[in-house]
Amino acid sequence: MTGDLPDRTAQGETGEMPRPAPTALFREDATFPVLSKEQIVRLAPGGRPRSFAPGESLVEPGVPPTRFFVLEEGQAELVRTSRAGEELLAILRPGQFTGEVNMLSGRPGLLRLRATEPTRVLELDRDRLLQILQTDSELSELFLRAFVLRRVELIQRGVGEVLVGSSQSPGTLRIKEFLTRNGQPYSFLDVERDAGVQEMLDRFHVGVEDVPILICRGEQVLRNPSNSEVASCLRFNEDIEQTRLRDLVVVGAGPAGLAAAVYGASEGLDVLVIENSAPGGQAGTSSKIENYLGFPTGISGQDLAARAFTQAEKFGAQILIAKSATQLACQNKPYAIALDDGSRVLARTIVIATGAEYRRLAVDNLGQFEGVGVYYGATPLEAQLCEGEEAIVVGGGNSAGQAAVFLSGKARRVHLLVRRGELAQSMSRYLIRRIEESPTIEVHLDTEIVALDGGAHLERVTWRESPGGRRETREIRHVFLMMGALPNTGWLDRCLALDAQGFVKTGSDLTPEDLQAARWPLARPPLLFETSLPAVFAVGDVRFGSLKRVAAAVGEGSAAVALVHRVLAE
User: Fold this and answer.
1) 3-state secondary structure at position 215
2) Of the candidates 366, 379, 305, 353, which has an alpha carbon nearest to the alpha carbon of residue 559?
3) What pLDDT, on a 0 to 100 scale, did the predictor assign at position 21?
4) Beta-bridge mates of residue 289
5) Is pLDDT above 70 for 183?
6) Is there a domain that residue 133 lies in?
7) Could you tell me the CA-to-CA distances from 386 to 23, 179, 409 in Å, in that order?
């Protein structure tokens, strides 16, 4: 990752440090573009000139980014710091600028930027940069592309935290997924495969029995941490003020929630999003979505979520990560949402976009194999685990179809188990054709899993054809569960009208009896997507009657913002 990318050299007698070579897809012009004089002039209002002496730092790792710099004279080097010393990653020259996506989120930086000769810069504070991103389309495109590409380069190089774990540890997979889906660079050491692991364990006074271990910010050792503990150590939410009253609080950062955040923030609302894991929701685990408008070659759920997340932050939405809503206090206004850390956030309006989760198998020992043979997403992380082996995908919807097609490129054979007698009822035709034409996918209709067996990892699966039919046991170590959906509404605590399955009822689906029980206080009926509680909306998979498609969720989230404006004006 460079302005001028140094060549890889061995450390010689001069003591020069090894320098990394560019990746195959590296595009220097887009990652470290040079601003024109006219562009720098446009940045000058609100900025101030500063000078740095050789050896003086402009940016330090572990410090939240409050300043953005454009070099006007001189030179600065971007270095990665570690216990082993420094590694040169970039040389910035006049016309080039600092920063990556942490400029949007306010999360601490990962690298040190240091002047190597007398250097003069134009300095802008972060608020001024965000204003430029929202008002200057040319500079916004240039900056955002560079920020994203720089973060991608950091991820590819493993700059950041160190995760020590095992493929036999469900906690390891959970943390890898959490870091990956949140776009956090890290390097991984496998205790079963990588040389030098014991030396690192000894250095930090931990043992193999403690894995997974996350070495956070090069100093703090976390033993099998929760997602919330990881987010806290990495200071994901440090820059976010939780106490002020928000125009709109969105609960859930899946496609529907992110769409509401983008449209709300872009239209001037003060928006806070609460997400219990990572952006993208259930859709974020999709390997490839091919029927989403504007992406003819398809896009992964994670990429779609990352783009939407960046877009929301660009417009000023703030997003709390690894925070769960535990209760909606619906008796008084403004509404209050209690979080799992004991805090609460206040809102004039709320959009509930907590989505749904896949149903669990009715097998007693299921929990024994979750994360070590049983998975709820088919991303490249899980695909690596079953490369060259057989795998099972359970489900008959689009998510299951996408997973089967994706895994068929890695696994030796994929068995698609469907409880129904056909696929056409809930799966798109293009996926059905792809499955029918794949020589490595075998479809089993009217079939369900009845037993799982193994030790530390899943080893055998038994399925049954139709109720009371033939049972068959196979030596298969990987099962992907993508069947049905259960709404994430347990935290609502009888505040809203729900259907028999727990989905939130909205708009015309609310009966007179629902509104009477909820003591609906307004002369008007509930608006489209409005729940039995005024100014509280539900969109996406959590809503009764939703289409359970990514495009539909995005449409609902964006449309709900127009209704939020109407309610705020009442």
Assistant:
1) strand
2) 353
3) 38
4) 299
5) yes
6) yes
7) 27, 21, 11
Quick one: pLDDT at residue 8? 32
Going by pLDDT thresholds of 50, 70 and 90, the confidence category of residue 3 is low
Half-sphere exposure of 435 toward its Cβ, with a 13 Å CA cutoff?
27
Instruction: Give the residue-averaged pLDDT of 234-245.
Output: 94
Q: What CATH number is attached to the domain comprising 185?
A: 3.40.30.10
Tokens found for residue 414: 């994929």
The answer to whether the beta carbons of residues 104 and 162 sit under 8 Å apart is no
User: Sheet harboring 413-418: ordered strands across?
Assistant: 374-375, 479-481, 390-394, 413-418, 441-445
Mean pLDDT along residues 333-345: 96
Burial of 305-335, coded b for 16+ CB within 10 Å and e otherwise, reads bbebbbbbbbbbbbbbbbbbbebbebeeeeb
**Do the Cβ atoms of 540 and 546 come closer than 8 Å?**
yes
pTM of the predicted model, to two decimals?
Answer: 0.92
How far apart CA 506 and CA 288 sit, in angstroms, is: 30
**Residue 12 above 80 pLDDT?**
no
Which residues have CB under 8 Å from 12's CB, separation 6+? none
Statement to judge: residues 409 and 446 lie in one domain: yes
Question: Phi, psi (5° rounding) for residue 233?
Answer: -65, -40
DSSP H or E segment with residue 143: helix 137-157
> Which residues form the domain of 97?
28-147
Are both 322 and 421 inside the same structural domain? no
Has residue 21 been placed in a domain?
no
Residue 484's pLDDT band, with cuts at 50, 70 and 90, is confident
Rounded mean pLDDT of 241-254?
A: 97
Which residue, among 436, 405, 443, has the nearest Cα to 421 in the 3D structure? 443
Q: Please measure the distance between the N-terminal and C-terminal CA atoms of the chain and give it in whole angstroms.
A: 51
The phi, psi pair for 541, rounded to 5°, reads -65, -20
Distance CA 208, CA 14 (A): 39
pLDDT in tens, 168-177: 899 999 999 9
Residues 490 and 475 in one domain: no
The answer to whether 261 and 273 have CB atoms below 8 angstroms apart is yes
Spell out the long-range contacts of 544-547 with Cβ–Cβ below 8 A and sequence spacing 24 or more.
544/498, 544/499, 544/503, 544/504, 544/505, 544/506, 544/509, 545/503, 545/506, 545/509, 546/503
Structure tokens at 52: 């740095």
Which of 481, 500, 519 delimits the end of a domain?
481
Cα–Cα distance, 533 to 519 (Å, whole number): 9
Give yes or no: residues 143 and 224 share one domain: no
End position of a domain, from candidates 233, 266, 295:
233
